[in-house]
Amino acid sequence: MGAVIRVTGTAGRFAEFRERIRWMLVREMDVEPYTEHHDEGGLEYRFEAAVRLPFPAFAAATVDFQELAVEAEWDDAAQGLRRRATIVAGKLTGQESVPLGAAAANLCVELSQDGSLAFALACALRGGAWIGYCADADRHAYLRGEAQALWFADAAGDRWTRRDGGAHDAPIDPDELAALEALAFDFAGAWLWYDAAPPAETALERSRYDAHGWPVHGANLLAGRRRELMAAGARHDTLSPEARALRDRVHAAWQERS
Prior knowledge:
By secondary structure, this protein is of the alpha+beta class. Helices cover 31% and strands 35% of the residues. The chain has helices at 14-27, 55-62, 174-191, 199-212, 223-231, 241-257; strands at residues 3-9, 34-36, 43-47, 68-76, 81-88, 91-99, 107-111, 117-126, 129-135, 140-145, 150-154, 159-162, 169-171, 192-194, 219-221, 235-237. It has an eight-stranded antiparallel beta sheet, sandwiched between helices. The longest helix is centred in the last third of the chain and has 18 residues, at 174-191. The protein starts with a strand and ends with a helix. The model has no long low-confidence stretch (mean pLDDT 84).
Protein backbone atom coordinates (compact mmCIF):
# COMPACT_ATOMS: atom_id res chain seq x y z
CA MET A 1 0.00 0.00 0.00
CA GLY A 2 0.98 3.66 -0.12
CA ALA A 3 -0.49 5.18 3.03
CA VAL A 4 -3.77 5.31 4.92
CA ILE A 5 -4.84 8.01 7.36
CA ARG A 6 -7.86 7.19 9.55
CA VAL A 7 -9.83 9.58 11.74
CA THR A 8 -11.91 8.14 14.60
CA GLY A 9 -13.68 9.44 17.68
CA THR A 10 -16.87 11.43 18.20
CA ALA A 11 -19.00 10.91 15.09
CA GLY A 12 -20.71 14.30 15.44
CA ARG A 13 -17.46 16.09 14.52
CA PHE A 14 -16.59 14.08 11.41
CA ALA A 15 -18.36 16.31 8.87
CA GLU A 16 -16.74 19.48 10.19
CA PHE A 17 -13.29 17.86 10.36
CA ARG A 18 -13.73 16.55 6.81
CA GLU A 19 -14.41 20.05 5.49
CA ARG A 20 -11.49 21.48 7.44
CA ILE A 21 -9.08 18.92 5.99
CA ARG A 22 -10.38 19.44 2.46
CA TRP A 23 -9.77 23.18 2.79
CA MET A 24 -6.27 22.61 4.20
CA LEU A 25 -5.28 20.06 1.54
CA VAL A 26 -6.39 22.36 -1.27
CA ARG A 27 -3.80 24.83 0.00
CA GLU A 28 -1.03 22.18 -0.11
CA MET A 29 0.26 22.22 -3.69
CA ASP A 30 2.35 19.02 -3.48
CA VAL A 31 -0.06 16.64 -1.71
CA GLU A 32 0.05 13.09 -3.07
CA PRO A 33 -3.10 11.92 -4.95
CA TYR A 34 -5.62 10.45 -2.53
CA THR A 35 -9.15 9.06 -2.29
CA GLU A 36 -11.69 9.28 0.53
CA HIS A 37 -13.47 6.24 2.00
CA HIS A 38 -15.72 7.34 4.86
CA ASP A 39 -18.42 5.62 6.92
CA GLU A 40 -20.27 6.21 10.18
CA GLY A 41 -17.30 4.84 12.13
CA GLY A 42 -14.75 7.35 10.88
CA LEU A 43 -12.97 9.06 8.01
CA GLU A 44 -10.33 7.37 5.87
CA TYR A 45 -7.90 8.89 3.37
CA ARG A 46 -5.86 6.61 1.10
CA PHE A 47 -2.75 8.00 -0.56
CA GLU A 48 -1.15 6.40 -3.60
CA ALA A 49 2.34 6.98 -2.24
CA ALA A 50 3.94 7.84 1.08
CA VAL A 51 6.48 10.42 -0.06
CA ARG A 52 4.83 13.72 0.89
CA LEU A 53 2.02 12.87 3.29
CA PRO A 54 0.20 15.91 4.75
CA PHE A 55 0.86 15.03 8.39
CA PRO A 56 1.19 18.70 9.41
CA ALA A 57 -2.29 19.48 8.08
CA PHE A 58 -3.92 16.60 9.98
CA ALA A 59 -1.96 17.38 13.14
CA ALA A 60 -2.95 21.04 12.99
CA ALA A 61 -6.60 20.15 12.45
CA THR A 62 -6.73 17.93 15.54
CA VAL A 63 -5.89 20.90 17.76
CA ASP A 64 -9.46 22.14 17.26
CA PHE A 65 -10.96 18.63 17.25
CA GLN A 66 -9.52 17.10 20.41
CA GLU A 67 -12.21 14.40 20.57
CA LEU A 68 -10.85 12.91 17.34
CA ALA A 69 -7.74 10.79 16.79
CA VAL A 70 -5.73 10.59 13.57
CA GLU A 71 -3.93 7.31 12.87
CA ALA A 72 -1.55 7.05 9.92
CA GLU A 73 -0.15 3.81 8.51
CA TRP A 74 2.39 3.69 5.69
CA ASP A 75 5.10 1.54 4.15
CA ASP A 76 8.68 2.72 4.49
CA ALA A 77 10.21 0.63 1.70
CA ALA A 78 13.67 2.15 2.17
CA GLN A 79 13.82 0.85 5.76
CA GLY A 80 11.75 -2.29 5.12
CA LEU A 81 9.19 -1.27 7.73
CA ARG A 82 5.47 -0.65 8.04
CA ARG A 83 5.06 2.38 10.26
CA ARG A 84 2.11 3.68 12.30
CA ALA A 85 1.62 6.93 14.17
CA THR A 86 -1.29 8.34 16.16
CA ILE A 87 -1.99 12.05 16.70
CA VAL A 88 -4.45 13.47 19.25
CA ALA A 89 -4.91 17.17 20.00
CA GLY A 90 -1.98 18.08 17.78
CA LYS A 91 0.46 15.77 19.57
CA LEU A 92 2.04 12.45 18.66
CA THR A 93 0.60 9.96 21.18
CA GLY A 94 1.86 6.69 19.76
CA GLN A 95 4.09 5.20 17.09
CA GLU A 96 5.32 1.75 16.11
CA SER A 97 7.09 -0.08 13.30
CA VAL A 98 6.95 -3.71 12.16
CA PRO A 99 8.94 -5.42 9.38
CA LEU A 100 7.23 -5.25 6.00
CA GLY A 101 5.51 -8.54 5.33
CA ALA A 102 5.74 -9.73 8.93
CA ALA A 103 2.01 -9.27 9.43
CA ALA A 104 1.04 -10.53 5.97
CA ALA A 105 2.82 -13.85 5.34
CA ASN A 106 1.12 -17.10 6.43
CA LEU A 107 -1.67 -15.46 8.34
CA CYS A 108 -5.36 -16.24 8.73
CA VAL A 109 -7.85 -14.14 10.72
CA GLU A 110 -11.57 -14.90 11.03
CA LEU A 111 -14.44 -12.96 12.62
CA SER A 112 -17.42 -14.41 14.47
CA GLN A 113 -20.92 -13.41 13.42
CA ASP A 114 -20.91 -10.75 16.14
CA GLY A 115 -17.63 -9.30 14.81
CA SER A 116 -15.38 -10.60 17.59
CA LEU A 117 -12.21 -12.60 16.94
CA ALA A 118 -13.22 -16.18 16.08
CA PHE A 119 -9.78 -17.54 15.22
CA ALA A 120 -6.39 -16.27 14.15
CA LEU A 121 -3.22 -18.08 13.13
CA ALA A 122 0.19 -16.63 12.30
CA CYS A 123 2.83 -19.23 11.46
CA ALA A 124 6.26 -19.79 9.90
CA LEU A 125 8.53 -22.70 8.99
CA ARG A 126 11.52 -23.17 11.27
CA GLY A 127 13.92 -26.08 11.18
CA GLY A 128 11.55 -28.33 9.24
CA ALA A 129 8.58 -27.74 11.56
CA TRP A 130 5.88 -25.11 11.72
CA ILE A 131 5.78 -22.72 14.66
CA GLY A 132 3.02 -20.23 15.26
CA TYR A 133 0.69 -18.22 17.42
CA CYS A 134 -3.07 -18.73 17.50
CA ALA A 135 -5.82 -16.88 19.32
CA ASP A 136 -9.53 -16.26 19.63
CA ALA A 137 -11.42 -13.67 21.66
CA ASP A 138 -10.79 -15.47 24.96
CA ARG A 139 -7.51 -17.44 24.73
CA HIS A 140 -4.20 -17.64 22.93
CA ALA A 141 -1.30 -20.07 22.60
CA TYR A 142 1.94 -20.86 20.84
CA LEU A 143 1.99 -23.92 18.60
CA ARG A 144 4.41 -26.30 16.90
CA GLY A 145 3.33 -28.53 14.04
CA GLU A 146 5.29 -31.60 12.97
CA ALA A 147 4.32 -34.35 10.50
CA GLN A 148 2.75 -36.57 13.17
CA ALA A 149 2.46 -34.28 16.17
CA LEU A 150 0.88 -31.02 17.16
CA TRP A 151 1.95 -29.14 20.28
CA PHE A 152 0.46 -26.16 22.13
CA ALA A 153 1.83 -23.95 24.88
CA ASP A 154 -1.17 -22.60 26.76
CA ALA A 155 -1.30 -18.86 27.37
CA ALA A 156 1.96 -18.45 25.45
CA GLY A 157 3.87 -20.33 28.14
CA ASP A 158 7.24 -22.08 27.97
CA ARG A 159 6.21 -25.78 27.90
CA TRP A 160 4.62 -27.76 25.09
CA THR A 161 1.54 -29.93 25.60
CA ARG A 162 1.26 -32.64 22.92
CA ARG A 163 -2.08 -33.31 21.21
CA ASP A 164 -1.58 -36.78 19.70
CA GLY A 165 -1.54 -38.95 22.82
CA GLY A 166 2.23 -39.00 23.11
CA ALA A 167 4.37 -37.38 25.79
CA HIS A 168 2.28 -34.97 27.80
CA ASP A 169 4.65 -32.04 27.87
CA ALA A 170 8.16 -30.84 27.17
CA PRO A 171 10.05 -27.56 27.62
CA ILE A 172 10.27 -25.19 24.66
CA ASP A 173 13.79 -24.71 23.36
CA PRO A 174 14.92 -21.17 24.31
CA ASP A 175 15.81 -20.23 20.71
CA GLU A 176 12.46 -21.51 19.50
CA LEU A 177 10.70 -19.61 22.27
CA ALA A 178 12.41 -16.41 21.14
CA ALA A 179 11.24 -17.05 17.57
CA LEU A 180 7.69 -17.70 18.80
CA GLU A 181 7.69 -14.50 20.84
CA ALA A 182 8.90 -12.47 17.85
CA LEU A 183 6.24 -13.97 15.57
CA ALA A 184 3.48 -13.35 18.11
CA PHE A 185 4.70 -9.80 18.79
CA ASP A 186 4.74 -8.91 15.09
CA PHE A 187 1.26 -10.31 14.53
CA ALA A 188 -0.31 -8.84 17.65
CA GLY A 189 1.28 -5.45 17.06
CA ALA A 190 -0.33 -5.25 13.64
CA TRP A 191 -3.71 -6.82 14.44
CA LEU A 192 -4.67 -7.10 18.12
CA TRP A 193 -5.08 -5.36 21.44
CA TYR A 194 -5.68 -7.09 24.77
CA ASP A 195 -8.07 -6.24 27.58
CA ALA A 196 -5.39 -7.12 30.15
CA ALA A 197 -2.95 -4.55 28.76
CA PRO A 198 -2.39 -1.32 30.75
CA PRO A 199 -5.27 1.16 30.23
CA ALA A 200 -2.91 3.86 28.99
CA GLU A 201 -1.84 1.58 26.13
CA THR A 202 -5.37 0.66 25.08
CA ALA A 203 -7.30 3.88 25.72
CA LEU A 204 -7.62 4.76 22.03
CA GLU A 205 -8.85 1.31 21.00
CA ARG A 206 -11.25 1.20 23.95
CA SER A 207 -12.73 4.53 22.87
CA ARG A 208 -13.14 3.24 19.33
CA TYR A 209 -14.89 0.10 20.57
CA ASP A 210 -17.12 2.20 22.80
CA ALA A 211 -18.02 4.49 19.90
CA HIS A 212 -19.12 1.46 17.84
CA GLY A 213 -20.86 -0.27 20.75
CA TRP A 214 -18.59 -3.31 20.40
CA PRO A 215 -18.03 -5.48 23.49
CA VAL A 216 -14.45 -5.91 24.71
CA HIS A 217 -13.03 -9.43 25.03
CA GLY A 218 -9.71 -10.78 26.22
CA ALA A 219 -8.23 -10.39 22.72
CA ASN A 220 -9.65 -7.84 20.28
CA LEU A 221 -8.91 -6.85 16.71
CA LEU A 222 -7.71 -3.29 16.24
CA ALA A 223 -10.77 -1.27 15.28
CA GLY A 224 -9.39 -0.44 11.84
CA ARG A 225 -8.61 -4.11 11.15
CA ARG A 226 -12.07 -5.13 12.34
CA ARG A 227 -13.74 -2.69 9.97
CA GLU A 228 -11.57 -3.95 7.10
CA LEU A 229 -12.54 -7.56 7.76
CA MET A 230 -16.22 -6.73 8.19
CA ALA A 231 -16.12 -5.14 4.74
CA ALA A 232 -14.15 -8.03 3.22
CA GLY A 233 -16.26 -11.04 4.18
CA ALA A 234 -15.05 -11.48 7.78
CA ARG A 235 -11.86 -13.31 6.77
CA HIS A 236 -8.27 -12.49 5.87
CA ASP A 237 -6.13 -15.35 4.55
CA THR A 238 -2.58 -15.21 3.17
CA LEU A 239 -1.66 -18.81 4.01
CA SER A 240 0.39 -20.92 1.63
CA PRO A 241 -1.08 -24.33 0.69
CA GLU A 242 1.22 -26.02 3.24
CA ALA A 243 0.27 -23.53 5.94
CA ARG A 244 -3.40 -23.99 5.12
CA ALA A 245 -3.09 -27.70 5.85
CA LEU A 246 -1.55 -26.79 9.20
CA ARG A 247 -4.37 -24.34 9.83
CA ASP A 248 -6.95 -27.13 9.38
CA ARG A 249 -5.15 -29.32 11.92
CA VAL A 250 -4.72 -26.48 14.38
CA HIS A 251 -8.31 -25.30 14.04
CA ALA A 252 -9.68 -28.78 14.71
CA ALA A 253 -7.47 -29.19 17.80
CA TRP A 254 -8.35 -25.66 18.91
CA GLN A 255 -12.04 -26.49 18.81
CA GLU A 256 -11.44 -29.63 20.87
CA ARG A 257 -9.66 -27.56 23.51
CA SER A 258 -12.55 -25.09 23.90
